[in-house]
């Protein structure tokens, strides 16, 4: 068993604001992230797969296939987008925190995950260099 | 407790399987199959597991770790062509997966019977691609 991690980048804007909170509560809860004009990040997304190394090819996954899946399922919908305005999952009540974004990306990947790839093991999103969010799959 | 030591080495390789045609290799490994080879600055993180010694406060003497990493990995791998100069990559495709497994196999015996156990090797081929291997048992 080996874990292989590939890192992707996307730039997006968001505003953290809940319709269930008052103006003051939103300001108190989300601070400057509640700025009505939004703000943006250069996100990094790490996708980790887990599997056995193919004895002939010496690899655990076809990287071009992994890239294709991650781009089609996630990056193309996220890069240079406004998460609140352009992502269906955030059109309702869900706040585009990076916790919620991680769950959205996980769901998009799992729905589109081909059997040709080893299983998804972990997602890690860097919102900034210092804010990092992880979801690990339970076996 | 775990402690991680990082070392770097630069090496060239060709990712192609002799049993595949040039077209199949190109399809499988992409530009990595270029027969002239290409290179990377590999970054290796070696994770050791143990308890700090009550007297020294150290899990392991890092000088010893450095010596082992230099002798078993950096000296044989750095500024080498992996396929041509570092067995078993004359017959095993030097993908980042296989290089990590080989590094584990070289390092694990060095820590047997010592206070620190080899827990994980994490090998970065580029900043955006790495593998983690914790031995065949894991």
Brief summary of the model shown:
Chain A is built from four helices and five strands; from the N terminus they run βαβαβααββ. With 139 residues, chain A is α+β, with helices and mostly antiparallel strands. In chain B, strand 4 and strand 5 form a beta hairpin.
What is the secondary structure topology, with strand pairs?
The complex is a heterodimer of chains A (139) and B (138).
Chain A: E1 2-14, H1 23-30, E2 39-51, H2 63-78, E3 81-82, H3 83-86, H4 98-112, E4 119-126, E5 132-136
Parallel strand pairs in A: 1-3
Antiparallel strand pairs in A: 1-2, 2-4, 4-5
Helix pairs in contact in A: 2-4
Chain B: E1 2-13, H1 22-29, E2 38-49, H2 62-77, E3 80-81, H3 82-85, H4 96-107, E4 117-126, E5 129-133
Parallel strand pairs in B: 1-3
Antiparallel strand pairs in B: 1-2, 2-4, 4-5
